[in-house]
Amino acid sequence: MKKILVSQPKPENGKSPYYDLQDKYDVEVVLRPFIKVEGLSAKEFRQHKVAIPDYSAIIFTARTAVDHFFRLCQETRYNVPDTLKYFCVSETIAYYLQKYIIYRKRKIFFSESGRAEDLVPILEKHNKETYLLPISESVPDSKVSVLDAHNIKYTKVPMFRTVSNDFKPNEPFDYDMLVFFSPMGVKALKTNFPDFEQGDIVIGAMGATTIEAVKEAGLRLDLTTTPQEPSMSIVIDHYLKQHCPQKED
Q1: pLDDT tens per residue, range 8-40
Q2: Which of 22, 167, 199, 235 could form a disulfide with 29 if both were Cys (CB 3.0 to 4.6 A apart)?
Q3: How many domains in the chain?
Q4: Is residue 18 part of a domain?
Q5: What is the pLDDT of residues 113-138, one digit of tens each?
Q6: Model pTM?
Q7: Residue 237, domain member (yes or no)
Q8: Which residues pair with 133 in a beta bridge?
């Protein structure tokens, strides 16, 4: 075991439990996502015939949605009014709005538990609002089904999409372990390398849908999380302890 590919973006602060594994064992850990998010252009957005000024409130289920909402507002030259209300699935997303607005001067609501189910009563309380929900064009959002189940009236509109983060033709793919966190990542592997054969390559996956995607792709699942080992970095650490020498102090 010499080289591990973890399909996640590099952390902005340069710190990661996966890098700790690199320091602990004689392995190279590469953080490189198989997928990336790209925004719809203003032209693509207009094709959905949704006018943002028609809505009095925005529902945010992810920080990515926040980024692309304000980006499209700028690109379509829509001056976001102070009266616009924001309803967020989590407090983390709510505070992320500070990147674009003066937080204390706006009407912002969020689920304290971080669960979409607990945002529903807040949305129902403000049933006079006209809700707009920015979504991904390519990846279903489970939180949408929660809103539908409770008959929340809203309009959803794609503002971004998830696509394969293509590998360059001359980029080496010499990994001994691949770790996935989404079905799209598994799909991107097959897109980039249609003739991929697993052989002795160890494959790890986290999450039920990702595990299912690995199996549907005809790949062997070697590592996954458990209640005893809920973190993928812990799972890999346990594997390396058995198969890879630790660095000497």
Answers
A1: 988 878 789 999 998 899 899 999 998 888 999
A2: 22
A3: 1
A4: no
A5: 888 899 999 999 999 999 999 999 87
A6: 0.71
A7: no
A8: 156
Query: Which residues touch 174 (CB under 8 Å, ≥6 apart)?
Result: 3
Task: Return the beta strands (E) in the chain as ranges.
Answer: 3-6, 28-31, 35-39, 57-60, 85-88, 107-110, 131-136, 154-164, 177-180, 202-205
What domain range is 134 assigned to? 43-162
- Decide if 132 contacts 155 (C-beta within 8 A): yes
Tokens of 109: 């609501």
249 pLDDT more than 70: no
Within a domain: 75:
yes
- 118 backbone dihedrals φ, ψ, rounded to 5°: -85, -5
β partners of residue 31: 6
Q: Which of 29-38, 50-59, 102-111 has the highest mean pLDDT?
A: 50-59
DSSP class of residue 140 equals -
The sheet that has 3-6: what strands, in order across it? 28-31, 3-6, 177-180, 202-205
- Dihedral (Cα; 97, 103, 109, 110), 10-degree rounding: 50
Q: Is residue 121 part of a domain?
A: yes
CATH number of the structural domain spanning residue 69: 3.40.50.10090
CA distances 63 to 31, 94, 139, 162, 232, Å, are 21, 9, 15, 14, 23
In three-state secondary structure terms, 134 is: strand
- Helix, coil or strand: residue 91: helix
Cα(160)–Cα(64) distance, integer angstroms: 8
